[in-house]
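Below is how a single chain appears once it has passed through the pipeline. First comes the sequence as given, then the structure the pipeline wrote out for it. We keep one example in the README because the format questions we get most often are answered faster by looking than by reading.
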Amino acid sequence: MGTSFVNLQVRHIDVAKVEALCPHCISRAWTEGWVTVVGEALERAGVQREAKRLSKALAAPVLSVEYVDDDYLELALYCGGRRVFRHIPAPYEDILRQQGKAEPLIKALELSDKTAKKLRTVLREQRAEVTVKLFEC
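Resulting structure:
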């Protein structure tokens, strides 16, 4: 059995605002410009449903991350309560691969040219576990 997790990454927002809207989760500002949200409540409520809700309530981009046993990865970005980006690097069970377009993600997250170039490389990868490792770099 591999690693499985879900989390939310909220861009350019104060951690206290996220904590107020997600009292049953753990919210931390580990990296400048980002608030990470984790907790069992996300799994029960559905991480994408929470991303949609938070993006609308906070008027901030929210990236949902779902990872299952090195086999499945789904990234979805919500802005204003709408999904503007979805990326599934490899098929899993009855879910087809879906290549996310980098531009909506780059624009919404206000990524630098250097980071945008790296993102485009990551999005070309077709293995879930390698995609996650590349995001760590």
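The mean pLDDT is 93.

See the next section for the split statistics.
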